[in-house]
Hints:
By secondary structure, this protein is mainly β. The chain has strands spanning about 5-10, 15-30, 35-50, 55-70, 75-90, 90-95, 100-105, 110. Strands 1, 2, 3, 4, 5, 6, 7 and 8 form an 8-stranded parallel beta sheet that branches.
Amino acid sequence: VDDLTGISVSGSGNIKADGIQTDRLDVEVSGSGDLELEGEVTRQEIDISGSGTYRGGDLRSETAEVNVSGSGDVTVWATDSLDVSVSGSGTVEYYGSPAVNSSTSGSGSVNSLGEK
């Protein structure tokens, strides 16, 4: 999937896409949506509100920005930088060794999964 720039899921939708190649990808999940993405992007921005799941461990990116409010779960792969904000009980896990800037409130967590 070349030149995909954004994905939005509201409610309980499920999306799986591979072969993504683009400079910037914006992802928004509200509700209990489930996304699984594979490929390579320069920058990805992920916004999860609710209990959505973002499985981007096979989507390589240089930089990633992740915002989770609620109980959402996010897995990303970032090589250079990762900015994370979690409010609620959400979890963000990441592959790679990026410079990490994280902020959590509530019982949310940010965890490294090591190199990919």
